[in-house]
Amino acid sequence: MSNIPETGRTQRVTIRLIILQILVVSLLLTLGGRLWYLQIRNGQQYTQQAANNHIQEVVDPATRGQILDARGVPLADNQTRLVVTVNRTDIMKMKDGGKAVLRRLGGVLGMKYQDVADKVRLCDAKTPRPCWNGSPYQPIPITDTATTQQALQIMERREDFPGIAAQPTAVRRYAGPDGSNTAQALGYLSPVTDDEIQASMKNGQPTLQRSDQVGRSGLEHTYDSQLRGKAGIIRYEVDNRGRVIGDAGDTPAVPGDSIVTSIDSRVQAITEQQLAAAMKDARNTYDNVTHENYKADSGAAVVMDVHTGRVIAMASAPTYDPNEWVGGISAKDYAALTGKDSDYPLLNRAIQGQSAPGSTFKVISTSAAVNAGYDINGHYSCPASMSIGGQVFKNFEGEQAGDISLAHALEISCDTVFYGLSYDQWLKDGGNNPKNPADWFYKTAHQFGLGAKTGIDLPSELSGRVPDRQWKQAEYDAMKKSWCAQAASGKHDYATDIAREDCTDGNRMRAGDSVNYAIGQGDTLVTPIQMARIYSAISNGGTLYQPAIGKAIVSPDGKHVEQIPPKPVGKLPDSPQTIHYIDDALAGVVTSGTAAWKFGGWPQDKITLHAKTGTAEVYGKQTTSWFDTYSKDYAIVMTISQGGTGSGGSGQAVRNIYSALYGVQSNGSIDQKKALLPAPQQRLPKFGPDGLVQQADLTTPDPKAFAYPGNASGGPTDATPVVALAPERNEKLLLGRRYHA
Amino acid sequence: MTSSLGGYSIRRFTPERSMVGKLLARDSVVRRMDWILTAAAIALSAVGSLLVWSATRGRTSINHGDPQYFLIRHLMNLAIGIGLAVGTIAVGHRRVRGVIPILYGVSILLLLAVLSPLGSTVNGAHSWIVIGGGFSLQPSEFAKITIVLGMAMILSGRVDAGDQMHPDNRTVLQSLGLAIVPMGVILLMPDLGSTMVIVVTLLGVLLSSGASNRWVFGLLTVGAAGAVAVWQLHLLSKYQIDRFAAFANPALDPSGVGYNTAQARIAIGSGGLLGKGLFHGGQTTGQFVPEQQTDFVFTVAGEELGFVGAGLIIVLVGIILWRACRISRQATDLYGTIITAGIVAWFAFQSFENIGMTLGIMPVAGIPLPFVSYGGSSMFAVWIGVGLLQSVRIQRPVSA
């Protein structure tokens, strides 16, 4: 048709066609520019969003490290249990939302359908527990106590149980080797809380996962970060409905480090058994003051290596089974452990039990007196009673011993000697009008580490109290109002009289306060671990160690071992002569002093024991028994609340622990072969190339191997008659924190 | 042509050329075709096939368990489309002129059939006729062609006859009247996207017809006034307005259109310069973008082929449109000029709207990307369009 002349296309049409072409080009340029903006300029941002969109992460929990005793015996390890899990994303894909499968699963496991379904539902504000508060892509555990048969039923009938898995999974176990329990020192785990996940944020990523268990107390808490390891992450590529369509690279889990402790499970077992036996014995013993048997409601015992401050055994009573926490504690069990009506078994009374030290404090008073300038070789009067500030301070049973040395005063625990020394010092410090008081007795207590935490590697340690002038002032400032209010009531009973007195001058250090203080009564509070440390220091020549249970941190493959060295943190303020003097005196307590009646037949020439008894009085309660002892290797401290006297309550128990440690037989001979631990274990256990610890053989000691006198044999038996003051306090002397008697 | 009878042959004197020779002759239909346009259209269709394949491989809910289900159908559609283009070239746009009223009538009937019980609804738009066997027809796609052809016929008639310089007002009104009927039916479906495309196509047709500026600007004014009226008189509910505006701010409709646009933007944005590789886009394999084989097919290119691949699609569309504009300027009569300009406006706006909505610069409307999206009706319509372009091209002056 080319021969047909062109129709005269007008200028207008030509221009418009060019306009059309320009419009088209500009539209396309717009698209290109926008494409560049999205893909090149902001590409990074969208890449991130895309990743968030279709990558789902599932946590692969790390195996928690073991807690080992000094020989490598696991105190806490992981048990393989058959855990049945439900994969929620698989279940939800089914037409009936997995109802049929869950019903079948309930049938196999012997659970109700509703119970299974409740565990699988996701938690939100409206859903009551139980519900799953982890990632919906995480396999949800239904039970960790499946039998092999149940697991086989599930795994062999895959077609009947899509999305269900039964897999061996590591679950915490507190093995209790050698019959030990070690509950409070080990602590326990419980699931992480939302707040903790928030608090663990590092670089915008939480270091804790929802599925994590966190150490709540004891070693599990202190060494939580080392034990935990690092959870792995399995990344799935998912589609818009959450269905898994591929892998997106995994981060493998790193198992946690193991902790080697200084605890010896055998000694731990003995210590626990002996504490329990001593308390049982006390409950069979008649208290002449309250005219009923001792209640012995709680107690604690510590065995410490005197040369390192390491704890070889730590017992606290009442106790509990730490395995109760594994796999989630039931509400009922939880109430029994923590409720108002429980006896608070979770408390570690070795570091959290505070009470007045009683006469075990006298080593500090002795040191204070010597440092204050009183002659160490001098003789001091031990009258039956003293009148100080218009009040009468009696000796224990009104007995007297004439002028005696400080050593003898320690042996027989003569109160009046220390009353006199403290009163004299109080007068020197200015009495009721103090002028730059030296306060030797209080200063020395601080120097012995009282009134402060020892820094042991356990959480929630209490510091005790030294009732010095600062404390009295602080207490007065805090309490004045309520004291004065009580005083204004006009009543004339014991408590109101004290309140009245305190209302006027409760901030003043009175003569009676100082006198009372010198024998470990009154407002002084100490913990068993503090006393174990002090007596260890006397044994080792004066070094105060920071007590520790952790000895080394060992990597999972056993190749990397990080030792935790003993940490000397101070020195006793005493000269070697003073320490030697006290050391001798405390040996005398065992041979001829207040503890002698419990140590008849002890091979003191081969294994020299040193001890100090204490019987602290508590207002409204029976006396607290203290028995602080040491050999050249070990310090053993035992205390029983409402347990009677120091030697009566704990003497036999502590002796039995020493017997077990050194292999002392009932006839006084020493059988090295039967000695559990003649010297503290210094070496670390060996780790094989696979990281497994080379375990020592387990030996469960027979509690019956130790003679234990019952109520009937409550008095001295084969001990040589003592020139000492009678060990049983049967007179109400210093009731409560006051000296009105 | 040769014939062999009884062992000898008689060769005619007239230099009859062989079929191949005819096709390859300098003035032949084949040689006169715009091969650059054809190549670009085929390339675009090829890329589109890959993208449709990638988008549907894993969509087990719709592909009947066969990863190639959509690919095979898409290639069939493409083959039919190319066949229709060849047919259109063979018939030629001039010869079509005579049957335009019939085509127009058929297309109106088909559109009405959609409104009848024969029609079915897909994604909120009642614009399909299900034929059976997994095939369905979208008459609005064909209506675009008949509107262009019908208007071109009316507007060019007296100008090409030499009666007028430009179409007069009466002619313009007649052509608008022709367009308004199918537009109204499509708007009733409601198929807002196709309506928008037809309005812009109509503008292209009027522009190229030489109709007076009053008509062009008048139409623009009416459109703007209509939009303002809809807005001011609250003819649309807030939900509908949010839906419309969600392309700019996905938060306005986070579970509906906003979700589409947000996911589309993530898919394209995450592609970067070179993309994640065909079949390796997480957004695509994860089926995060709805309607990805049809309206949102461009997101597959963005994610898996990156800026380079997605840019190539825009460039190919550009080549097609550039060549189409050239053909329009070369057309020997106003009839051919209007047809080609209308097709340019149609292809250009439909591509811009489709890609623009995936990029978040245009509101979401359910229209396919020419040559690329899955869908038979659209594929047939655009290839008929190519056939018309080639037909006009073939009849250009040899010198051009």
TrEMBL record, chain A:
Residues 299-657 form the Penicillin-binding protein transpeptidase domain. Its EC number is 3.4.16.4. Gene3D superfamilies: DD-peptidase/beta-lactamase superfamily (3.40.710.10), Penicillin-binding protein 2a (Domain 2) (3.90.1310.10). Residues 60-246 form the Penicillin-binding protein dimerisation domain. It is found in: Cell membrane; Membrane. The keyword rRNA-binding does not apply. NCBIfam families: pbp2_mrdA. This is Penicillin-binding protein 2. It comes from Streptantibioticus ferralitis. The lineage of its organism: Bacteria, Bacillati, Actinomycetota, Actinomycetes, Kitasatosporales.
From TrEMBL, chain B:
Keywords: Cell shape, Membrane, Transmembrane, Transmembrane helix. The chain crosses the membrane at residues 35-55, 75-92, 99-122, 195-211, 216-234, 305-322, 334-352, 372-389. It catalyses: [GlcNAc-(1->4)-Mur2Ac(oyl-L-Ala-gamma-D-Glu-L-Lys-D-Ala-D-Ala)](n)-di-trans,octa-cis-undecaprenyl diphosphate + beta-D-GlcNAc-(1->4)-Mur2Ac(oyl-L-Ala-gamma-D-Glu-L-Lys-D-Ala-D-Ala)-di-trans,octa-cis-undecaprenyl diphosphate = [GlcNAc-(1->4)-Mur2Ac(oyl-L-Ala-gamma-D-Glu-L-Lys-D-Ala-D-Ala)](n+1)-di-trans,octa-cis-undecaprenyl diphosphate + di-trans,octa-cis-undecaprenyl diphosphate + H(+). Its main location: membrane. Pathway: Cell wall biogenesis; peptidoglycan biosynthesis. It is a multi-pass membrane protein. InterPro entries: Cell_cycle_FtsW-rel_CS, FtsW/RodA, RodA/MrdB. The keyword Membrane applies. The keyword Transmembrane applies. It is found in: Membrane. Its EC number is 2.4.99.28. This is peptidoglycan glycosyltransferase. It comes from Streptantibioticus ferralitis.
